[in-house]
Design brief:
Keywords: ATP-binding, Helicase, Hydrolase, Nucleotide-binding. One of its GO terms (biological process) is RNA stabilization. This is S1 DHX8 helicase. The protein is mainly alpha-helical. Among the domains are: 52 residues, no CATH class; 30 residues; 37 residues. A three-stranded mixed β-sheet has the order 1-3-2, with no helix packed on it. The protein is elongated. The protein starts with 9 loop residues before the first strand and ends with a helix.
Length: 238
């Protein structure tokens, strides 16, 4: 497919090389002359391909060669896949014998084996040879004599008992400072005063109720006595 005149087209990153390309600048540079093949023309838009053309000779690459490279590219992940997992399917490609060898290798690297190797190592060099003699490592002790000075130091002159001052024992007075502490103390005192006022009101109400009840009882008793006397007088007059 030919294109007359001087035209421009686009080469997709997948059409640059037979190999997988993530960045076009890894293969080509700006203003670099390359051979391309016209793949498709749609509405004056031209799609080009570099991978179908030999960039050294400018000749088209035969399909058989392309197919062979595609097969090699397809089998490449199987050969170089990390941890023997297929890059395409993710299937474990190890054989049963390789799995057994791998499991055995893991068992050899267990903490128990490492500890046993350490014990063998220390048993060979001899732990007893590395014991430290504590008595030999201690330095010679030196004795010091301490004497108490009878004279007052200049910065304490006239402030100690030697000057005749009788010092009283230290007293610890709880006097918290700060607005938060003052507010806390005031809140406690306010709650206490409020509780006392409430108790006084309750006592006053109880006293009033008791007095009213006593008065009602007294009035009731007077009415009963009056009725009894009234019946007795009426019976006499009968």
């Amino acid at each position: 497919m030919g294109v007359p005149g001087r035209r421009e087209g686009l080469v997709h990153v997948n059409e640059i090389s037979q190999e997988r390309v993530s960045n076009a600048f890894d293969i080509v540079k700006r203003n670099q002359e390359v051979y391309v093949k016209v793949v498709l023309i749609v509405n004056n838009k031209i799609k080009l391909s570099m991978k179908d053309v030999n960039q050294k000779t400018g000749k088209l690459i035969e399909k058989k060669v392309v197919q062979q490279e595609a097969v090699e590219e397809f089998t490449k992940p199987v050969q170089v896949g990390k941890n023997n997992f297929g890059a395409i399917t993710g299937i474990n490609l190890r054989t049963e014998e390789e799995e057994k060898k791998k499991g055995k290798k893991k068992r050899d690297n267990s903490p128990e084996m490492w500890e046993r190797d350490r014990l063998k190592y220390w048993s060979k060099i001899g732990i007893t040879d590395n014991k430290v003699n504590v008595e030999d490592s201690l330095s010679d002790e030196e004795e010091y004599n301490v004497e108490l000075a009878e004279q007052e130091p200049l910065f304490l002159k006239g402030q100690t008992t030697k000057a005749g001052i009788i010092l009283s024992p230290i007293r610890i007075i709880k006097n918290p400072e700060g607005s938060m502490n003052r507010e806390a103390l005031n809140a406690v005192q306010y709650a206490k005063d409020r509780r006392e006022v409430k108790e006084q009101q309750q006592r006053a109400v109880m006293d009033t109720m008791n007095r009213e009840q006593a008065q009602n009882t007294q009035i009731t008793q007077l009415v009963i006595n009056y009725l009894i006397n009234f019946k007795a007088i009426r019976k006499r007059l009968g």
